[in-house]
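Lab manual, section 2.4: Encoding a predicted structure.

Procedure: take the sequence of the chain (401 residues), apply the prediction step described in section 2.3, and record the output as structure tokens. A sample record is shown.
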Amino acid sequence: MDLNYSPEDVAFREKTRRWLEENVPRQDLKTLDERKAWHRTLYEAGYVGMLWPKEYGGWGATPMQQAIVQDEMARIGAPPPINGLGIGFIGPTIIVHGTDQQKQRYLRKMLTAEEIWCQLYSEPNAGSDLASLKTRAEDTGDHFVVNGQKIWTSSGPIADWGILLCRTDLKVPKHKGISCFLLNMRQPGVEVRPLKQITGLSLFSEVFMTNARAEKDDLIGRLSQGWEIAQTTLGYERGANSLGRVTRYAISYHQLVHAAKELKRGGRPLIDDPVVRARLGKMYAELEVQRYAGLRVLSGLNKGETPGAASSITKLSYTEFEKRFYETALEILGPWGQQMVAGEDFEEVDTSSGEPGTFATAFLWSRAGTIYSGSSEVQKNIIGERVLGLPKEVRADRIAR
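Recorded output:
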């Protein structure tokens, strides 16, 4: 894509900057209702769902315009929108595989955050080996009855709907007997139990389904097409939202630089230490690499390309970078890292009962990125086998035989 700013891009940036300066909340958004209200304000201004087609409630913007909005939000420290799982990859999956009825029913409310979404994929014994999932959906005639358990469900405690993978055929190989449904999380047969994380927050949860109901109209694609559909979702999850993550890193970076200018060690500002400056410079260079990687993904999406297996490269890159980023931040800040607020958005967490996250919190959270959406080890296998065409991994126990 052409990364030079056209006159139209320059005008769009100026317009976006003025709007944000006039509308960004002056106080912290501590409750879910406050986050939703800000999200709707952003959406109505054209800054949420920018790349979605207009027919589904999006704005049909260009990747460059979305990049400009992300840049300007980072510059001013604006709170990000919520419902990231829905807008980032569940909605795009419905656009690719869903029926017209499903698109009309769900997509606009997803964009406006009237309905918050979660992803019901992983199970206690089916994490990286997702195809081993046991949750069942049985056809009872006019609907499906769902029984099973999911775990590590991000946004589960506040979700209204979820995209669900479950087994509908026990007689075929495990990858072939899986179907995909949209599931009402507010029905009596769904129990959500928040899980406490190392950060002290409860972003994700266990979800238990006991005779829960999945409507036949909410089947995505065909029966037993779930594994194929899951690859679409995971492709968007691993790559399509990478630029939004870069915005959060940029906010944290600017806060870190500001802290380094204000805080002193040995009577001198931290920023005067040549080692600190070198580390900050290296972080900035790596941050730019992540930003351009995100722009590359957006460019491909704008051309009608799906993320595919190559999204594993992006996912592996930004999650490993995130660990290095916050580890370096704590090395620079020392004890102040326990107090300095980081540029986190807490995904869809209602933070009314807790304090804003520190750099130490972000450091702890960064470990999760190398596990969710497929661990770093899984991403390396995908890159080797499906992107580079290398032979499949051979397990050591098989070699021993």
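Check your result against the sample. Confidence is low (pLDDT under 50) at residues 345-356.
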